[in-house]
Amino acid sequence: MKIDELYEIYLQYPSIETDTRKLKKGDLFVALKGLNFNGNEFAQKAIDAGAAYAVIDEQKYASDKTILVEDALLALQQLAHHHRRLFPIPFIAITGSNGKTTTKELIRAVLSSSYKTYTTEGNLNNHIGVPLTILKIKRDAQMAVIEMGANHQKEIASYCKIAEPTHGLITNCGKAHLEGFGSEEGVKKAKGELYDHLRENDGIAFIMWDYDYLRQMSKEIPTVFKYGTAGADIIGETIENDPYLSVKFISGYQGNINTQLVGSYNLPNVLAAVATGKYFDVEEEKIRKAIENYVPSNSRSQLIQKGTNTIILDAYNANPSSMQLAIENFANAKNENKILALGSMAELGESSLQEHANIIQLIGKHTWKHVILVGKNFNAIQHSYMHFSFPEEACAWLKKQNLTNTYFLIKGSRSTEMEKVLEAF
Q1: Cα(78)–Cα(135) distance, rounded to whole angstroms?
Q2: What ranges do the domains of the chain cover?
Q3: Which CATH number fits domain 302-424: 3.40.30.10, 1.25.40.850, 2.60.40.10, 3.90.190.20?
């Protein structure tokens, strides 16, 4: 079936699902394949559960309620691209090594105060999540904010072909997914694919002007809107960061913003949201309220109170760059009873042991009540700190300590599941 024909069916049933467990009656089920599953095998189950049709790419699963295509994933992506073409509105793409989701959520909050805004749900920012996000955009849309994650070259470029962003923002380029990118230069090249698209299509970039490498990477983009701590269209600085970040603005915005975000490393994220709001003429009071009312969730720099103990839970993800920023921010906190509970960092390839050794060296520059390290990568390095193979073991040890009036930082890669340490409180 051709994409324009499939699109006519989508218009009748504009809700797409790829997981039969989440299927609702009247959905279009798209049978995707993975390393350990074949969605075609669930096509009949989806139909029995009320799917209007199942989009499949294997003939043997065909029935009167299936739509046969050459490649189900490609069809999903082409369908999304076809849908995107109907919207003459700003499409803002966000990528980067750290802070993508927080920046996306802050920008969503700001733009939603004045425009009907559709955005990536959670972190559905991959080759499946990007098209699914676009296909959820309805006719009343005035803005679209699309988060793009990547762990190898040409990935962002492929998302740009689907989403055709008119505006873009790279939060930063750090030591993330080195296994796929190979080096920090590889990260810059991959994330820079967004700038390449903007450059080639007369797009507009929002740029953190403090970062020299982003200045260099963004050369020849026709229009840039700058934010940072100096020399930018929007200039702001940290005035308080214990525990929550407060920002004072020097230029481009009047007044201060008192956030519910933990960590001075969130300053660029706040500045990005203000810059985007100002560029799109959102009233300053609406910008302030939107940012001040945003509360992080899903283990992203959450501040949690458990009795007399205070916990920063930042266990959704970790890489050497974000780990360093979090540790240094935590070290500057005024509380003297500080405990680090850090999980291993994933997807670092050949650099893994060295990067974990660098983190141990950084830990040693500060004074802590306790340091708890979790995971095989920390275990493979010589150090004097407490170590556990699994977060459940760290949790069991903490339970026995009966700690009070203590400040915790819990951080690690998603695969380490450091949020399980919370069960100790």
Answers
A1: 11
A2: 3-71, 87-292, 302-424
A3: 3.90.190.20
The three-state secondary structure class of 99 is coil
Catalogue the E-assigned strands of 195-295: 204-208, 223-228, 234-241, 244-251, 256-262
Distance CA 98, CA 172 (A): 7
Class of domain 87-292: alpha beta
Question: Using CA of residue 251, residue 254, residue 255, residue 256, what is the dihedral sign?
Answer: negative
**CATH architecture of the domain covering 3-71:** 3-Layer(aba) Sandwich (3.40)
Closest of 192, 278, 263, 261 to residue 227, by C-alpha:
278
Mean pLDDT, the chain, integer: 94
311-350 tens-digit pLDDT = 999 988 888 989 999 999 999 888 889 999 999 998 898 8
What is the DSSP secondary structure assignment for residue 281, as one 8-state letter? T
Alpha helices in 226-343 (DSSP H): 267-279, 284-292, 320-331
Cis amide linkage into residue 131, ω under 30° from 0: no
Is there a contact between 395 and 418 (Cβ–Cβ < 8 Å)?
A: no
Nearest Cα to Cα of residue 22 among 46, 39, 6, 56: 46
The 10s digit of each residue's pLDDT in 43-91 is: 999 999 999 999 999 999 999 999 999 999 999 999 999 999 999 999 9
Element (H, E) at 353: helix 352-363
Which residues is 234 bridged to in the sheet? Answer: 227
Contact at 8 Å (CB) between 319 and 177?
Answer: yes
- d(C-alpha 47, C-alpha 43), whole Å: 6
Summarize pLDDT for 360-380 with one digit per residue, the tens. Answer: 999 999 999 999 999 999 988
DSSP-assigned states of every residue in 309-339 = EEEEEE-S---HHHHHHHHHHHHTSS-S-EE
